[in-house]
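Quick one - inputs below.
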Amino acid sequence: MDKVRTIKEAMEHIKDGMTVMVGGFLGTGTPEKFIDYLIEKNVKDLTIIGNDTGFPDRGIGRLIVNKQAKKVIVSHIGTNPETGRQMHAGELEVVLIPQGTLAEQIRAAGAGLGGVITPTGVGTIVEEGKQKIEINGKTYLVELPIRADVALIKGAKVDKKGNIYYHHAARNFNPLMAMAADLVIVEAEELVEVGEIHPNDVMTPGIFVDMIVGGEA
Amino acid sequence: MDKVRTIKEAMEHIKDGMTVMVGGFLGTGTPEKFIDYLIEKNVKDLTIIGNDTGFPDRGIGRLIVNKQAKKVIVSHIGTNPETGRQMHAGELEVVLIPQGTLAEQIRAAGAGLGGVITPTGVGTIVEEGKQKIEINGKTYLVELPIRADVALIKGAKVDKKGNIYYHHAARNFNPLMAMAADLVIVEAEELVEVGEIHPNDVMTPGIFVDMIVGGEA
Amino acid sequence: MGNVREIIAKRVAQELKDGDVVNLGIGLPTLVANYVPEGIDIILQSENGFVGMGPQAEAGKEIKDLVNAGGVSVTLQPGAAFFDSAMSFAIIRGGHVDATVLGALQVDQKGNLANWMIPGKMVPGMGGAMDLVSGAKKVIVAMEHTAKGTPKILKECTLPLTAAGEVDMIVTEMGVMVVTKEGLILTEIHPDYTVEDVKAATEADLIISPDLKMMSVSD
Amino acid sequence: MGNVREIIAKRVAQELKDGDVVNLGIGLPTLVANYVPEGIDIILQSENGFVGMGPQAEAGKEIKDLVNAGGVSVTLQPGAAFFDSAMSFAIIRGGHVDATVLGALQVDQKGNLANWMIPGKMVPGMGGAMDLVSGAKKVIVAMEHTAKGTPKILKECTLPLTAAGEVDMIVTEMGVMVVTKEGLILTEIHPDYTVEDVKAATEADLIISPDLKMMSVSD
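Output:
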């Protein structure tokens, strides 16, 4: 199974209206070349799931500025004024989720769990419309799994079987999203031969990865 | 904060009647020196949480053979006939849990989640007495977090801040248990200086670890 | 007929596709890896925490901390990766295992499986079996058709279940059966047996496929 | 009195114990790291995925992929460790953070905190704040006592909450308040203010501790 693709071959799978997860935290760990390409292709009406909407010129924020999203599901939009503007103008639906809950919801989707039982958000507007559950006298929210059609991941080193090694704080949501989408495409900073990442040090097993773009591709 | 202890200093904290998690899978990744010491001290009436009860001469199994447990919470006892014998004789309480559920229950305790929503066990005797929850028309079990007084962990390399690197399949339950006990003690195959494990490669952050035994200690 | 276990393992191997992530149970299912067709690469998952498991290690060449879920020393394939038990079962429960192959004490026409205990007699524990059967995309039971003549393929399991309604396919030395909404359908039969032979060895209501084929067991 | 932010940061720093894992919010709370007493080692957690965060990086010495949760380039301390966002919040939600220090728009005498939105005006999102306030063992609000004269310490928050009943301590330039079952108790007061000054700047019912101490703000 050869998983290595040109960026064009890989990005062809992203269509208008899809739900797309994008790794990264304020742009750190975001596959910026994929963002470049999506902007060039001008894919529209995306539902974007990520930690935040980055900055106007960095990360997911560039897709917002280019008006390619109809909805975002994130924990924070404060660093990108354009997200707030579109939200207030009714051009963009914004769903805000506590960061740790968002991480667990994506993990739950990848791990086949039916939901997440978390204390976060109890007694706040986050609990509105959510199922609650009492366990040992304490109240928790039941938060549902979050999946996507496509996950766009960034790895520092990726081998040709799709095993990924992340660098420093660029890891963040990437390993979680790699488990929670129908199609997982990774942007490799460095594409390496199988064996160059020690089996102990693989952070995302290649079994989750469908396509790899990087190196000369 | 010096975390390095002699085995004697560390094991003194394990008292009769405590609930103790022990890492490992059929003995691989089990801190055998700690088991040696607990056998020598003959600590009694333990509730032991682990993947399995190992073999009669390896892993947790040695504590069973020496009759130091009153209860075990595990996924499998088939490789240690003595566990079954004590269970049938009414000398040992055995709670059997599906392996993936057990892993998530321990993780949930460490991660501050109120429980685990899993499809595993639905329609089997595992569901007896458990709360069920319907999500999107599918039935799940609500399984509760599992914590311990002490977790006994085995690491291949451990630095003096308690950062742990595991080797091959010896990882298994160790990183999960390191998050889910009041006192976490790690047996280091190799005790190394801070910095010898790259921050990217730490598998259990030292913040979870209270005491380290290894090297000359 | 040839070696029964070999026939079963060979036939199961044909179900596997290139790139499949597969978990093989202890015993007969483990043999399946030996018969994967040329050109098909599968990735074996081991529930104690890795993908890319290779064949059993040669005596004297065991690798430290490298055993399968049964405690047997194994080897690694290129591209292997280790992880903790939560990730191992995230893979299993999350539907990232394309196929799991397990033995059974009993299996029934509704796809129920019992393979983990005989009350009062044998209580080894379910280990990872319940998660595997609930979570894998395709569940294949690989076993001898009967227990020394006593049917194991039943109308309804009497032993405690491993999972309810999760079995997709049963492969025995007599043939191949698939679980459907309509019931249990015999789709392939081994040339050494007649349909009547299979029916006699099966307690379940067996629907005979109108397209009944000969079970392919050649290499 | 001296620099208000410095006074607050210094006093908060005295709450931290050797070995504590601490998460500091953006802005004033970040300053706390500068005043940790001699001999006390704390470990800073950054919700974007690491422990062992060091001071801000010098210009020109930024390290690739090493920023804090506000996107500012930082450095590492010896013994640092990186992890993914699920682990980062397992640490936070699981009670492995000994103390979190945050600012507030409003905080009330029941320990409710509002610091993430002003409806119709400012909706940045809660980021990791809700998890931090629910999960940390000790929640310390560090802020100026009023918003240019308007009380921020209230009987009851009017803005949407970040978390209900989770605040343990409030440190301002006027003093130190602790949230108890009995209510909000003023335990320390800055020497530049009288009890009446503090009461006048506080909307909440303030219980004056019989052991009221001078707020210690020396180095």
